[in-house]
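Follow-up to my post from last week.
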Amino acid sequence: MTENNPVGNNSVGSDFVGIVAPQTAHFNSPLTLKSGAVLPQFDLVYETYGTLNADKSNAVLICHALSGTHHVAGKYTENDKYAGWWDNLVGPNKPLDTNKFFVIGLNNLGGCHGSTGPVSINPETNQQWGSQFPIVTVEDWVKSQALLADHLGIAQLAAVIGGSLGGMQALQWTIAYPERVRHALVIASAPNLTAQNIAFNEVARQAIITDPEFHGGDYYAHHVLPRRGLRIARMLGHITYLSDDAMGAKFGRKLKGDIKYSFDAEFEMESYLRYQGDKFAGEFDANTYLRMTRALDYYDPALNFDGDLSTALNKVTAKFLVVSFTSDWRFSPARSREIVKALLDNERTVSYAEVTAAHGHDAFLMRDVHYHNILRAYLNSIEVGIHHAK
Amino acid sequence: MQNNVNITNSTQEFRQDFAIISGWVKFGSKVLDLGCGDGALLQFLRSGLEVKGYGVEKDDANWIACMNNGVNVIQMDLEDGLSGFEDQSFDTVILSQTLQAMHNTERIVLEMLRVGCEVIVTFPNFGYWRNRIQILSGNMPVSKILPYQWFDTPNVHLCTINDFDEFCKNHKISVLERKVITDGNQIDFMPNFLGNLAIYRLKAN
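User reply:
Got it. Predicted complex:
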């Protein structure tokens, strides 16, 4: 869920996708959302890496998590400080090899990086949507992603990949469009959120909603931003994405200087959280954050099947790779094993890897040799028909 | 505390154990191979019998090897049981040359019988005469099938054919079939003395 490539951002070289540019797909037909609300029209901003092959069988969709974007890999200019958020995975000869695959990253509906969201103009009012932007769900995102695939002329995806909330979208693809996806890579994810996870999301939302500058979600009209709330929400998130051990190893009880008997950021841990919170509050939209966390809360494909995930996955035909990380306590290995069990109950093709990692939930974004070997081995096994003519 | 329980030698015994196992697995059936190593057995069963196979493996390197061999692999520690698998959800559950390295030996056998309609267990027979001679001469046995020294062996629960027969009897496990081999040859006479690899087909009673 961390936005920028958190480690090992030495992405310049022969495995680098290079300079990239986002594109926008405009959809004129109204989109009916799960809530019943209708978006009269919408934009999806996306990036692609690699080349679509002749029979269009090599497309891989990357679904982002809470704060991700369409900018998965590459840089916009040579001088960009950071490459895309999953640049360590995507590129020529990288685990998700752009010599083989045509990779698509998009910004989800309700986002704040170019796709239609609360900051966009509502064509009916000519004002920013703000509080009026509907609640979007994982199902809605997948529906809109399928429209993007149509737009790109792709009938069937070779794979959908996502971590965390992105993993839920990958799972949902296999439920909603079994004939349109051959492989799903569900990483550090869960078939629904636990009560504890919903609780964390609620604290994050309350921090935003109770910020005096939130104005019920219509802060744009007041020319202010609920920065304090968003900052606290992000600080909380950061704590939960890391493991106790990883925090201990990185910060421990290290102080920035002598103890001052104050409430300043005296511990390096505090300083890090404040920095991350401030940075995020300066670049992310609070209304989007609220909606992303809500989408997480609501997702529960087993809900209409008496909580039975095996029944919910009955019509799934895709092959699965499920990956979890031992120190991830927000999306624990046990939750991934629930997905694996439901697939086994349906005799589906599934492999499951439980990666020994110290970094907690954020491990899915890290460059770890074994983790990347897992993804590489699985992605290598995917057949893509006719290779692109070069 | 867990050892890597995979014995990845490719001796004649190992292949022979494949051949006998494949004779007991039905065409197109659903097979779970516990401690599947690099997935060689499942690959073998899939090519010949078109089984729907899943391997269970704990080791990271073996996981990658399975994937490269095109074998479905679930990473978990057998010592934790088979909690992700429903009762009687597999036609056959196999534990090939891994029993002796399990800590919770009793539990895994009972779990296999719960999950599998039939169970195949293979293990090196500690009662094999060459092992007995090494013991008599004052050393722990070391051989092709038991390649470890006493101080580095993952094998913590070695047993003889007599021991395992007794185990099955005491746990009311039906032995549907038993084959004993040495260097690829089937041993029918004094198997607990002359056989070095035992292969059992079991069913819950």
